Amino acid sequence: MKDLPPEILELLFDYLNDPKDICNISETCKKFKEVIERSDRLVKKLTIYVSYPAILHSFRSTLKNSVRRYRNLCITRTRDIGTESQFLSLTNAFELIGPKIKNLTVKWCLLRNLDIPITNSSDQAFRRRIRAEMYYYDHAPMGRYYGSYGGMRDNYRDELHKEFITIIKYFTNLERTVWNDVHIERRTNLNEITTLDFTSLRQLEMRDCDAYAFDVISSATQLDSLIITDPSWNSNRLPGIDTFELFLISQEALKTLIINSIQHPRLFNIDRSERIQFKLKSLELKDVSFHDKTHAENFFNTQKELEFLNIQLQNERSRPLDFLSFYDEILKTVLKDNLKLKTLCFDKHNYRFINCDFLKNIKNENVETLNFNVSKEDNDAEFFKTLLKTLPNLKTITYKSEYCVDNDGDVCFDKGTNLDQVVQLVMINASVKSLINVYVQHLHTFELSPKLNGSYIDDYIGGFLHRHRTIKVFKIGNSIGPSYFFVSWNLCQIIVNYLINLESLTVYNFAEVNKSVQFLCNLRYLKKLTVSSLQYQQITAKTKEECERIKLKLIPVEKTSQVNEIVEQDDDDD
Prior knowledge:
By secondary structure, the chain is an alpha/beta fold. Helix content is about 30%, strand content about 20%. The chain is globular and about 75 Å long.
């Protein structure tokens, strides 16, 4: 292999997606190391991780002794107080490498130091711990919180702000950047901020940053993608959302916009729709409140080239009664005027429509995918039923209820529902009674996850499978957390008798695992059988031999644990 030319070796190494594998190969021999160091294609997969000021010395040594043209950098600002000489060394290193970096991740201040994963921005318990930590961060004596340090600094937070501005200005050729916990005070020198050049930036993601951070990045007006998650202006005590809105409308080529968790102050306090130049293709709004219904409608009127829309429909207790029809005109505009719309996702969270007559005479024949999530406070499926009539050419339908006790209120299909174009149907926590009301002519993939079920469930499922013998991919059971549903021996017989063309089957909970798996071996075209890892361990050698004989591949899969916590909402989140 050493005799191969560098071009061929580079092509072979390019198949490695894990950066650790690339690093290991570079240490194999001198030739491999030179190939990787001189390849832009391979080096762009590698990321330098800098923890300042903790491992600053090793970072400087890496840059000094390496000829790699690094493109990715991750900076973590620890709680330690660095010396002036350390900071000077860091800026000298960034001055050298900064113009070469294309992808920069910044983890500033506190959040990244907590030993709790950020998995859900709406986790109230997590937010409480963050607020307590931030309060202590702002008010505790510096010597007690950060350890004794000669020449104790009275305003450590201001030093962090100055450090960030000084460091970020060296990265003038960024194409993508992610900022975590960056908080810029308005008193920062605005003249210095406006000189920062980010005109090459195309992707920006901000997590828990204040709106003043947009002052720093204001020159980036050619973004393709903008992602805002859990911003720090979610309080009336923290102004700045106006700065974000001005940054948003300054974009000229924005195609993807994702906003997660903007409650107070609400979005679009001022109507600036006439100044919007961008035409989005993808829009996601989750846990976002609009200040004014008319302003929200005007914004959606400017976006008529959407291909993907994910929007959370939610109610607010503080709103007047007319808010009950808040989304009517917005949805009417989206479905009527967006002729390129392909995927539509709704997350209906404690929001009930007075009626669905506003969609009565609207048809959108372009939407092919519908994802519909409904909270346990609002398991009324009438809006979903109306959407099925409004979107006649759907190919993929996902209906997910947060909670189901198999009552009539969660029957998601009207009697006689005929879905001619659908090839994939997913029903999670929907009532199994829905199965008797629907017929899907060309169904290829079917996923059913019952939760709290009533009686005769095998009869409902059996009747559905009898009418849909075209199914080739079938998933049944709950992949997340504990399940109250088991696939019985009787249901396995139904599957074998009706789904003779089945190619892939996933069952998370067998009532009798070995007996069932052996019987499923009678399916002629079945090639893959996926089971939970726990039940895979219960499969005997005899059963595995039978699967090997017919070339049936057994695949174990870990079930994802899910912990549901009820957390009392605090005053700041009301």
